[in-house]
Design a protein that fits this description.
- This protein is an alpha+beta fold.
- The protein folds into two domains: 110 residues, 3-layer Sandwich (Rieske Iron-sulfur Protein); 218 residues, Alpha-Beta Complex (Naphthalene 1,2-dioxygenase Alpha Subunit, Chain A, domain 1), CATH 3.90.380.
- Helices cover 22% and strands 33% of the residues.
- The chain has a seven-stranded antiparallel beta sheet. Strands 1-10-9-4-3-2 form a six-stranded antiparallel beta sheet, with no helix packed on it. A four-stranded antiparallel beta sheet has the order 5-6-7-8, with no helix packed on it.
- The protein is globular.
- Bound molecules: FE2/S2 (inorganic) cluster (FES) and fe (ii) ion.
- The site of fe (ii) ion has 5 residues, from loops.
Length: 341
């Protein structure tokens, strides 16, 4: 059902401390903790003794101690100690490779050798970018979020008070492939900036009375990364190619991590190239995004329920859906390749 040989964001770095965090990823129950050196450990959340979830226990040095009868499992998944027992021959617990990068913890749930080169690149890991973000637990198939982010025509209806504007409906959207990426893009010329972007222009010292060129370039990489290049520049400055001081420009970063077939964790944020080092701007954008993505959450959870009520109905695939449709094809190709393998 899910591609497993891939990196998924399982948590933000600050969610995992010295007590165990239970989290299901791709239908696999996992438990995360930090060892005595602060390194992340990720194990299957199952005690080999009597099957209690290890996450009910506690961290003891480098080990995770089951809360039922005290069996301790090491970071490599090997049983290390149990009072009055010899543990050498006890079955091991599955241990998963993790990488901590850019404030996120990535996990590789599959059985193939993890490929470190495939950890998503994070645009804000550079001095010229600033970042703020958050996360949601959403009761909807992660592919519904991919559809949502690869088709921004919904902005005009779901987000009419912040980033929606009628010109979104008037401009055609183009979908194409760029190597491993599926790209859906839309450009609007000489339009009035919507409220979110007017505020950003103000923060960047640009005249908000000017008409702007606006762009939205959504890029999807299977299985769960979407980076959306968004911004506005006063008309005549080159749009997306305008010099940094003449545009407000950000990358909406999205990681959709499947929990089950009908729920996911959504890690969202925005890397931006204006007001660097200004924490108030970061917090204001975070609040704005939280509100916007809450509007998406409400639609998606209802859409999930509606789809479950009518499982036999076929969905339309319009030009505006091409990005999501191609993304799903890529996901399916990964799943098929893993099954063949
Ligand atoms: S179930 Fe974990 S120690 Fe017994
Ligand atoms: Fe949205």
């Amino acid at each position: 059902m899910f591609p497993l040989n891939a990196w998924y964001v399982i948590a933000t770095a600050d969610e995992v401390a010295d007590s165990p965090l239970a989290r299901t990823l791709c239908d696999i129950p996992m438990v995360l903790y930090r060892d005595s050196q602060g390194q992340i450990v990720c194990l299957q959340d199952y005690c080999p003794h009597r099957g209690a979830p290890l996450s009910l226990g506690r961290v003891n040095g480098d080990n995770l101690m089951c809360g039922y009868h005290g069996l301790e499992v090491g970071p490599d998944g090997k049983p290390a100690f149990m009072p009055k027992q010899r543990v050498e021959r006890f079955p091991c617990v599955e241990a998963y490779q993790t990488i901590e990068s850019g404030g996120y913890i990535f996990v590789w749930p599959g059985s193939d050798q993890p490929n470190v080169a495939q950890v998503p690149e994070l645009p804000w890991n550079q001095p010229e970018w600033e970042f703020g973000g958050g996360s949601f637990h959403i009761q909807a198939d992660f592919r519904l979020m991919i559809d949502n982010l690869m088709d921004l025509t919904h902005e005009n209806y779901v987000h009419s008070s912040s980033i929606g504007q009628p010109e979104i409906d008037e401009q055609p959207v183009k979908t194409r492939r760029d190597g491993e990426w599926v790209v859906t893009e839309r450009y609007m010329e000489a339009v009035e900036a919507p409220p979110f972007w007017k505020l950003a222009m103000q923060q960047h010292g640009l005249d908000t009375d000017q008409l702007v060129d606006r762009w939205q370039v959504c890029r999807f990489k299977a299985p769960s990364t979407i980076m959306i290049d968004v911004g506005v520049a006063p008309t005549g400055q080159g749009g997306i190619n305008a010099p940094v001081e003449k545009k407000v420009h950000g990358i909406v970063t999205d990681f959709m991590t499947p929990e089950t077939t009908s729920s996911h964790f959504y890690f969202w944020g925005m890397a931006r190239s204006w007001s660097i080092g200004d924490n108030e701007v970061t917090q204001a954008i975070q609040r704005g995004q939280q509100k916007i993505f809450t509007e998406d959450l409400e639609v998606l959870e209802r859409q999930q329920k509606s789809l479950e009520r009518f499982p036999e109905r076929k969905l339309l695939m319009l030009d505006i859906d091409a990005g999501g449709v191609q993304a799903r094809r890529q996901l399916q190709a990964m799943v098929d390749a893993e099954h063949r393998g």
